[in-house]
Amino acid sequence: MMNKEDIATKKNEKKYQQANECPITIFMEKIGGKWKPVIIWLLILNKVMRFNELDKSIDGISQKMLSQQLKDLEQLGILNRKSYPVIPPKVEYSLTPKGQSLEPILDAMKTWANDNVLYSK
Amino acid sequence: MMNKEDIATKKNEKKYQQANECPITIFMEKIGGKWKPVIIWLLILNKVMRFNELDKSIDGISQKMLSQQLKDLEQLGILNRKSYPVIPPKVEYSLTPKGQSLEPILDAMKTWANDNVLYSK
DNA sequence: CTGGATCCTCTGCGATACTG
DNA sequence: CAGTATCGCAGAGGATCCAG
C-alpha cells in the first residue's frame, strides 16, 4: 500500500517507466516455476501424453509435483485432461490452443539458453 | 564400427521425447524468479538506471532483494554495473548485449499475458 | 495406473535496522 | 546513495505411503 507521502508526490512526473503489475511478472507467476515449462514443452513435442509417460520423461519430478502442476495448468486453460473410465485408469493430457500458443516463446527461451551457454552453476 | 547416429537411434527407442537438462529449465533457473524479469524489462525501457531509480520503479521490492538480484544478473553477464567514486555514491546499471537480446522474449511474454487475460488469482 | 494424503526440508523472499 | 546484516516466515518442492 501507499503511504500519504507517496500519494502527495504521486503527481510528480516520473522520469522512469514504472513496473507495477508488469505483465511479465504475471506471466512468470503463471507459467514459471520448476516444472511447468517442461511439461508444456513435452506436450508440444508429443501432442498427447499419459501421466506415467510424463513422469518418466521428466527427470527428478515426483508424482506429487507432477499431478499438482498438471492441475494448475488445467485450471489456467493451458492443457486438457481426458480421463477414460477403465481399469487400470488411463488419463491423457494434451495442450489447448492457448497452451500451443506458448510454443514460440518457449522455443525462444530454449534458443537463448543454448546460444548463451549458461554454464551449469 | 558404429557411427554416432546409430548409437543415438539405438538409445532412442523411447517413444517419447525426454526433458533432461531441458534448456528451458535452465532459462527459468537463471532469468526466473519474482524480480529478475522486471529489472531486465526496466533496463530495456530506460537503458540506464541508478540503484535508487530501480528501487522506486519496482513496487514492493526491498533493497536487499534488489541488490541481490542485481548481483545475480551481473554475474550472468546480463547487466553492467558502473560505480562512480563520488560522494554520495553513484552507481549505474545497464544491459549488456546479452541482456538486450532478451527483449523479444520478454516482449512475447508480455503480449501473451495480455492476450490471455490471466485473471488475478 | 493415477493420483491423494502426510510429513518434512530448504530457500526465496520480506521486514527492519544499520553503515561508508 | 547504495548498499549489508539479521531475523524469520510461508510456501515451493521432496520422500514416502496409501487408495480407487
From TrEMBL, chains A, B:
Keywords: DNA-binding, Transcription, Transcription regulation. PROSITE patterns: HTH_HXLR. SUPFAM superfamilies: Winged helix' DNA-binding domain (SSF46785). GO terms for molecular function: DNA binding. Residues 22-121 form the HTH hxlR-type domain. InterPro entries: HTH_HxlR (IPR002577), WH-like_DNA-bd_sf (IPR036388), WH_DNA-bd_sf (IPR036390). The keyword Transcription applies. The keyword Metal-binding does not apply. It comes from the Bacteria. Pfam families: HxlR (PF01638). This is Transcriptional regulator, HxlR family protein.
